[in-house]
Amino acid sequence: xxxxAKPNVLALVPVATQARIAQSxxxxxxxxxxxxxxSEISHMPKNCACFDVLIVPATxxxxxxxxxxxxxxxxxPRQTILAYTPRADFHMWSSALEQGCYDLILEPFQEETxxxxxxxxxxxxxxxxx
Length: 130
Prior knowledge:
By secondary structure, the chain is α/β, with parallel strands linked by helices. The chain has one domain (8-126): Response regulator (Rossmann fold, 3-Layer(aba) Sandwich). It contains five helices and five strands; from the N terminus they run βαβαβαβαβα. It has helices at 15-25, 38-42, 66-74, 90-98, 111-126; strands spanning 8-12, 31-35, 53-57, 80-85, 103-106. A five-stranded parallel sheet has the order 2-1-3-4-5, with helices on both faces. The model has no long low-confidence stretch (mean pLDDT 83).
């Protein structure tokens, strides 16, 4: 990957995990921002190009969260989405991919896995090799 190109990340994660995630991703991201409520994402402008990778809980894939999910699909340019969950099975993983996620990652986040997932997600839409 081009060493000068670093993704900007927006993570919808609990406040209690934000510092650990920021520390884990600091070496590989340009900027990381956090929100702790999905409504913050659903009110983003459709032309928001302020981040490249979005980390969201897999619960956003559930039907009651579709308005937020639809807003993510309408952003231009589209961000790469990583969903996270404490447990996953094939059905959840395939559902995440069908709904446009790049990948489904497990929490608690392992530092190296989180970094690799973010970099691969970014590379997938920006034409870099990781």
